DNA sequence: AAATTTGTTAACCAAATAGTTAAACCGTAT
DNA sequence: ATACGGTTTAACTATTTGGTTAACAAATTT
């Protein structure tokens, strides 16, 4: 059946495009390079995706679709707050190892295209902070954690987990270690970060 | 004296280049756009800076020269640890308001050009973590803070301060607030972040 | 004030790059 | 076999873009 072959080529292109776009960004990516990586003629890119812009949007959407569930692990999950922070921190490292350039790619392109946010927000499955806010105010009421705004806590959790990857080259230089040692530091963070956060908020 | 005029044109170009490069990155920036912003002919860019690459490097160097002292406020400063954390957090927001795209620019271009790190490291005034390490181990010995690796604490401080700006469009969408409210959140962080960190490590 | 050096511009060039076209290919149904 | 559909390619086009050139302008030196 030709459908199988079509799907193969199409996903082949998408996979190649993911690699190139995530590594070099929209502006730095070259259609020819994507075609080469997918081992097809450049015209095929346009046959399947019409334009660079549309191919890029397909990649971006796919990237965000992968990232959203990670964020939802903090925002929408019924488990106990501390347990949740521990699990998210633990999981996030593994996620980034599987998709090293993805979070940075999403953040960068959002910075360069703030109007994308509008599109994303309108789609279903866009993570919402509402549940998390309730959980935090409950935990405060029950005397489990010190008073803190849910927004601030959320930003702290995300910052502590995402930035060490985005800022890797800078942090590696500042901390003055090589790639191997830096990876060890990141591995340590799997547990360290959660304890750092919990230490700060628990009563 | 023509020197004055030359300096004006040269810095005019550099300022325009800073704006464009920091906003769009090396790959996304256009020499013509820089020339337009500097209100000069495109050939003048090459007269003063030879190539896009060299102009970019001048901008990058200048950006890092501005960023380094900020980092040194955490790493090399004799003041009391808690006071230092409080002051850095307070100052950093003001710094980023003055140079909104600078930290992200530096980090992005380092990600795309990891070999830049080598050049930066070899220059004097590159921030070193040594003093900070001593300060932390002293504080632990003296029972002021709980045991923590200096590297981890440093990464935490930097992450909590820098990421909220780099991830602004994403965080704004996730936290579900408009620009104005997000700015208020950032202003709150001037004090909140320091207390969050100190809470976590103090005994 | 003539000559020389420095600063600036318009016009141009070559390479890179996104996108198009028309023909070839290839499996499937007639 | 052959006509037909979707798939793939080589060759091409138009535009963008970094960079150059040669002439002009303005200041500096002699």
TrEMBL record, chains A, B:
Pfam family for this entry, one: TetR_C_29
Residue spans binding DNA: 30-49
SUPFAM superfamilies: Homeodomain-like, Tetracyclin repressor-like, C-terminal domain
Top-level lineage group: Bacteria
Swiss-Prot/TrEMBL keywords: DNA-binding
GO molecular function: DNA binding
Coiled-coil segments on the chain, per record: none
Domain HTH tetR-type as annotated: residue spans: 7-67
InterPro entries named in the record: Homeodomain-like_sf, HTH-type_TetR-like_transc_reg, HTH_TetR, NicS_C, Tet_transcr_reg_TetR-rel_C_sf
Name listed for the protein in its UniProt record: Transcriptional regulator, TetR family
Organism: Flavobacterium xueshanense
């Amino acid at each position: 059946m030709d459908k199988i072959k079509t799907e193969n080529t199409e996903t082949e292109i998408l996979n190649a495009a993911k690699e190139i776009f995530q590594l070099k960004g929209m502006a730095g990516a070259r259609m020819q390079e994507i075609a080469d990586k997918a081992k097809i003629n450049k015209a095929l890119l346009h046959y399947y995706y019409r334009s660079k812009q549309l191919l890029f949007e397909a990649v971006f959407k796919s990237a965000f679709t992968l990232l959203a569930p990670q964020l939802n692990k903090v925002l929408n999950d019924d488990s106990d707050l501390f347990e949740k922070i521990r699990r998210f921190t633990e999981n996030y490292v593994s996620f980034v190892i599987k998709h090293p350039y993805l979070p940075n790619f999403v953040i960068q392109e959002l910075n360069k295209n703030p109007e994308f946010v509008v599109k994303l927000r309108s789609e279903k499955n866009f993570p919402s902070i509402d549940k998390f806010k309730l959980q935090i105010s409950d935990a405060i009421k029950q005397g489990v954690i010190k008073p803190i705004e849910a927004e601030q806590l959320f930003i702290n959790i995300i910052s502590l987990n995402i930035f060490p990857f985005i800022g890797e080259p800078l942090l590696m230089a500042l901390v003055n270690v090589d790639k191997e040692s830096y990876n060890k530091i990141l591995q340590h963070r799997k547990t360290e970060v959660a304890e750092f956060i919990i230490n700060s908020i628990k009563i």
